[in-house]
Amino acid sequence: MQEDAVKRGSGVFWALVAAASFSPAGALAVALQQAGWSPAAALLARVGGASLILAIPTVLTMRGRWHVVAQQWRLILAYGLIPVAAAQFAYFQAVQYINPGTALLVEYLGPVLLVLWLWVRHGRRPSRRTGVGMVAAVLGMMLVINVFAGITVNPVGLTWSGLAAVCLAVYYALSAGDHGGLPPVALICFGMVIATVAVVAGAGVGVVGLTSGPGPAVLAGMEVPVLAVVALMGVVPGAVAFIAGIMAGQRLGSTVAGFFGLLEVVGAIVATWLLLGELPQPIQLVGGAVILAGTVLVKLGESRPTEELSKLPLTPVPEVAAKLA
């Protein structure tokens, strides 16, 4: 019992680290775009930088385990293409048709989709507390994003946002699943490499544009070398965030880790305030409190937080990877 409590406590810690690390991604991307960088170039800075940062730790942890890469190639391919590359690409596509707040709200319904998938596919019915917490978290996000200020509904934009939500659900499922002896840092690194190749290939065929400017970027009212922002993008929302997310998923299970991930929305508001000078509104603070309450309810409603996916076959993920290959 004490060992389980320690494991859950460390899971909460890693979940908070993941949410805090993911949070500044939007603000850093805006700073890069204002310095002349395209969204795809900012994404490339994130995934490419993380690949370089994690290369040496990956080589060290993979000594004597390289055969695992061949065994888990479908997992690596799925992770790099879906949660890393496709989710962010889908979000960038969505904001061309609908406002970013609506797109983010739809994307962060990913944990809801995961709960429903576990229910329909494996008969794992959510508890009453989990259901109430799920509803509270969604309502809290609506307040945080201030979606009531105005919504431009476009079916194309909503479709792209829905795809991003599916990718987010896959991220939490993969993070909590069995990696077959593949170290988390290696999974992240290989996934980032796959995403980097995907972005470059997309630019090569004209799907996305890669443009960059010399800078400087502006953060917290100060001019910052653009390369410093690029490095920060690769370290914090790149390497640290994804590693922490996997560590949290393995300890808490995908459902609880997924709803802790909703705190990223609150963190993004704080990061935007500190880095770009945009103050949060009172209604957004209320929404943050509602999200916290919902997250607590979900955690209390999960009687088997670390076992929910470990005993369930994740056959859909390898099948998806096989189709992508």
TrEMBL record:
Please indicate if the UniProt record lists Transmembrane as a keyword: yes
- Residue ranges of coiled coil: none
| Organism annotation | Parenemella sanctibonifatiensis
Q: InterPro entries recorded for this chain?
A: EamA_dom, EmrE-like
Give the UniProt family note. Answer: Belongs to the EamA transporter family.
Which Pfam families has this protein been placed in?
EamA (PF00892)
UniProt KW Magnesium keyword = no
Q: Name one GO cellular component term.
A: membrane
UniProt lineage = Bacteria, Bacillati, Actinomycetota, Actinomycetes, Propionibacteriales
Where are the membrane-spanning stretches? 39-61, 73-91, 97-120, 132-151, 157-174, 186-212, 224-244, 256-276
Protein name, as recorded: EamA family transporter
Q: Which PANTHER family match?
A: ACYL-MALONYL CONDENSING ENZYME-RELATED, MOBA-LIKE NTP TRANSFERASE DOMAIN-CONTAINING PROTEIN
Q: Give every EamA domain span.
A: 10-145, 157-298
Record's keyword terms, sorted: Membrane, Transmembrane, Transmembrane helix
